[in-house]
Write a structure and sequence with these properties.
The complex is a heterodimer of chains A (about 120) and B (about 110). Chain A is mainly β. In chain A, strands 2, 4, 5, 6, 9, 10 and 11 form a seven-stranded mixed beta sheet that branches. Chain A has a four-stranded antiparallel beta sheet with strand order 1-3-8-7, with no helix packed on it. In chain A, strand 7 and strand 8 form a beta hairpin. Chain B has about 110 residues and is an all-beta fold. Classes of the chains: A mainly beta (about 120), B mainly beta (about 110). Chains A and B meet through strand 4, strand 5, strand 9 and strand 10 of A and strand 3 and strand 4 of B.
């Protein structure tokens, strides 16, 4: 299967600062990636769709100015949480679509745990 | 995409088969059933998927009822490492934007 990697795996930041999370497709080019957020004991909630070379599409209720998504290359999408607050502490997960028709499933990264103090 | 319903939790003895049910009564003809699992603090891991025929791979078997309104994921010999939250997702083959339900928290007991 295809490999999607996130960096960092965990990060602690101070309230009011911004933090960037990277999502990379290691062995394939991904024109589309997806970002999810997961609070403790809850399911994954889709935040946005990241499209290479164009603006991200955000789900209803997700603040696009707070969660900046950039998909500048075919193997990298970044999520920047701006002016982070403790309520932004969560597990952030990305996934990517493999471009060939042989894969109909999305591939997920290992997740990034963000703690805002 | 069709909605799915799963029991919130299940226990299974180590070495026994774990049978995880999923209801998807509103599934449409071009929608597949996908199963993923999420081990604590990791990203979801693909397990198996199917359209209408039963499927088997090295991880699990997927049994889909004839009317396709429900399915069962079978882990034939559960181990402690199979303890995870299992998600059943219904989607078309061209959809990669997943809507996750609450899943089933499977605990494999020694």
């Amino acid at each position: 299967g295809a490999v999607v990697s996130q960096h960092p795996s965990w990060v602690i930041c101070k309230s009011g600062t911004s933090v960037k999370i990277e999502c990379r497709s290691l062995d394939f080019q991904a024109t589309t990636m997806f970002w999810y957020r997961q609070f403790p004991k809850q399911s994954l909630m889709l935040m946005a769709t990241s499209n290479e070379g164009s603006k991200a599409t955000y789900e209803q209720g997700v603040e696009k100015d707070k969660f900046l998504i950039n998909h500048a290359s075919l193997t990298l999408s970044t999520l920047t949480v701006t002016s982070a607050h403790p309520e932004d502490s969560s597990f952030y997960i990305c996934s990517a679509r493999h471009p060939t028709g042989g894969y109909t499933e999305a591939f997920f990264g290992q997740g990034t745990r963000l703690t805002v103090v | 995409d069709a909605k799915t319903t799963q029991p919130p939790s299940m226990d299974c003895a180590e070495g026994r088969a774990a049978n995880l049910p999923c209801n998807h009564s509103t599934i449409s003809g071009n929608e597949y059933v996908y199963w993923y699992r999420q081990i604590h603090s990791q990203g979801p891991q693909y397990i198996i998927h199917g359209l209408k025929n039963n499927e088997t791979n090295e991880m699990a078997s997927l049994i889909i009822t004839e009317d396709r309104k429900s399915s069962t994921l079978i882990l034939p010999h559960a181990t402690l490492r199979d303890t995870a939250v299992y998600y059943c997702i219904v989607k078309t083959s061209g959809t990669y934007k997943y809507i996750f339900g609450t899943g089933t928290r499977l605990k494999v007991l020694a």
